[in-house]
Design brief:
The radius of gyration is 18 Å and the shape is globular. The chain has 239 residues and is of the alpha/beta class. Helix content is 31%, strand content 23%. The strands form two sheets. It has a seven-stranded mixed beta sheet with strand order 5-4-3-6-7-8-9. The protein binds S-adenosyl-L-homocysteine (SAH). The site of S-adenosyl-L-homocysteine has 24 residues, from strand 2, helix 7 and strand 4.
């Protein structure tokens, strides 16, 4: 099927109807990224094995979420600048954090720190209900546009301080925070359903932080695990 589609080349009408992963020239780079950086054991990393996560990482066109000058580096094993002092996380970290959340189709998930929109797109490959909040307005607006352009228009985007979660939303099955906070925001714990998980880097800004996995128990208490050292841009508070 795939070779038939590729053999027909890039006729405009056909290309428009092709799923992205078959139509773009970076597909091989993306598959290699998943095989070499994410699904295999590298020093100090556990391989990501969740097939839904691996498939999402193989599908989302990461090169469309980086600045034009970084397109050639989009699939390398590192974070990249996205402007306003912020970064798109390293591919492995995106995959590992997504796996930790145990997202399944049908889950309603919230991301704090939209940035480029990449992590939100990865989540949107796994479930239909994705919400994301960004505090830096130009980044939030650009990400919202990009997500629509790339077919992820179902992702709900908001510009604002994510500390308080999504306004008036009852509860989420998972919350993923992609900026380093000094503490776990209680309003975010409040927005977790019983049994739901939050993944959040906690620690001082511009230093190594601990990636915390937080699970809300049926009785409302939380259990936390330290999943290892990470380095994220700071969680900032809007006014
Ligand atoms: N998830 C992003 C990476 C973002 S970097 C991606 O896939 O590209 C972290 C982002 O968190 C930055 O864009 C930063 O502006 C944002 N951020 C920091 N503090 C925030 C807050 N209080 N509320 C919402 N977003 C915040």
């Amino acid at each position: 099927m795939r070779s038939w589609l590729l053999a027909l080349g890039a006729g405009a009408a056909l290309a428009a109807s092709l799923p992205l992963q078959q139509a773009d020239e970076y597909r091989d780079a993306r598959l290699l990224m998943v095989r070499q950086q994410i699904a295999s054991r590298l020093a100090g990393r556990n391989p990501v094995t969740d097939t839904a996560v691996l498939r999402a990482m193989e599908t989302v066109p990461r090169h469309r979420f980086v600045r034009p000058g970084d397109v050639k580096r989009a699939y390398s094993d590192r974070p990249l600048p996205i402007g306003h002092g912020q970064t798109i996380s390293q591919p492995y970290i995106v995959a590992a954090m997504t796996e930790m959340m145990h997202v399944v189709r049908g889950d309603v998930v919230l991301e704090i720190g939209t940035g480029s929109g990449y992590q939100a797109a990865v989540l949107a490959e796994i479930t239909d209900s994705v919400y994301t909040i960004e505090v830096v307005e130009p980044l939030g607006r650009a990400a919202a546009r990009r997500l629509v352009e790339l077919g992820y228009g179902r992702v709900r985007t908001l510009v604002g301080d994510g500390y308080f979660g999504w306004p008036d939303h009852p509860r989420f099955d998972g919350i993923l925070v992609t900026a380093a906070a000094s503490h776990i925001p209680p309003p975010l714990v409040e927005q977790l359903k019983p049994g739901a998980r939050m993944v959040i880097p906690v620690g001082a800004p511009f230093q190594v932080q601990s990636l915390m996995l937080v699970e809300k128990q049926r009785d409302g208490s939380v259990i936390q695990w330290n999943m290892g050292a990470v380095r994220f841009v700071p969680f900032t508070r809007g006014d």
